[in-house]
Automatic annotation (TrEMBL):
A Pfam family recorded for this sequence: ABC2_membrane
Alphabetical UniProt keywords: Cell membrane, Membrane, Transmembrane, Transmembrane helix, Transport
Upper taxonomic lineage: Bacteria, Bacillati, Bacillota, Bacilli, Bacillales
Record's subcellular location: Cell membrane; Membrane
Cellular-component GO terms for this entry: ATP-binding cassette (ABC) transporter complex
Keyword Transport listed: yes
Membrane topology: Multi-pass membrane protein
Recorded GO MF terms: ABC-type transporter activity
Source organism of this protein record: Halobacillus mangrovi
Protein name: Transport permease protein
Transmembrane stretches, start-end: 21-41, 61-84, 105-133, 139-160, 172-193, 225-250
Domain ABC transmembrane type-2 intervals: 25-255
Length: 259
């Protein structure tokens, strides 16, 4: 049974990847927007790094996680859109009539979304190096940033898939992803926590999991191997994945029972 699950997951993942490649405009705009943010923020706000709080840190390394996380939201959201398309064109119903694992039917689009995000993150980091990115922890730090990005993408893909299975509607699934965009800006997006003046924004940043994703990446890029600062992002991802993947699994069970 276990082998069948992995085989079915692999086949469905490959199908979703091929579907994405046939329609590159489903991911190219998101990549371009993330790269655009990186260029604009670096060009317009890099002077902030001269403030004493930054201690001479490279602002490009500080802002890079924002571009990566925005790519994660857009890229991983494709998992939900893929499921909705399969529901609307009847492919999802046909899959339910086959012996294919029900878990694989949900995991396939999620993994495909993660792989798409992995490529996007590599390209964004590559653009960062072209702009002069310096990484304190070297190649190991880049790998850590990639793992954090993929983990956050997994959490968001689970949420996206869950919303798609609940609503079975493309517009509703797309609208459901917008909840994550405010999380980017209610965080330490442009300046460190110490420079945020509004008390309400400090409270929002403290309870916002995106803050810990940012800080974990920035620690690897700027400060070095500081264990607890790195682990905060890992813990946030584990909690988020537990919630969103459970949500997707429950939604899938209900979708399957309804046929």
């Amino acid at each position: 049974m276990g082998n069948n699950v992995w085989k079915d997951t692999w086949l469905i993942t490959v199908r979703n990847i091929k579907t994405t490649l046939r329609n590159p405009f489903s991911f190219i705009p998101n990549l371009m927007i993330s790269a655009f943010f990186l260029l604009v923020y670096e060009g317009g706000l890099s002077g902030i790094s001269q403030l004493p709080t930054f201690e001479g840190a490279n602002y490009l390394a500080f802002i890079l996680p924002v571009s990566i996380v925005s790519a994660a939201i857009g890229g991983a959201g494709g998992a939900g859109q893929g499921i909705v398309k399969d529901i609307e064109n009847g492919f999802f119903s046909r899959l339910l009539l086959t012996p294919a694992s029900r878990l694989a039917i949900v995991l396939g689009p999620i993994i495909a979304g993660m792989l798409q995000l992995f490529i996007q993150t590599l390209l964004i980091i590559g653009i960062g190096f072209l702009l002069g990115l310096e990484v304190k922890t070297g190649f190991g730090g880049i790998l850590f940033v990639l793992l954090i990005a993929i983990g956050w993408g997994l959490a968001f893909a689970g949420y996206s898939a869950g919303v798609a299975l609940r609503t079975k509607n493309a517009q509703a699934a797309q609208a459901g992803t917008f909840i994550f965009f405010p999380l980017i800006f209610l965080s330490t997006t442009f300046v460190p926590y110490e420079l945020i003046e509004a008390q309400w924004l400090k409270v929002a940043a403290t309870i916002n999991p995106t803050t810990y994703i940012f800080e974990s990446m920035r620690t690897a890029l700027i400060d070095g191997w500081i264990f607890w600062d790195l682990m905060q992002g890992v813990i946030a991802i584990v909690i988020a994945c537990a919630i969103t993947i459970t949500f997707a699994a429950v939604s899938a069970k209900k979708a399957v029972s309804r046929g």
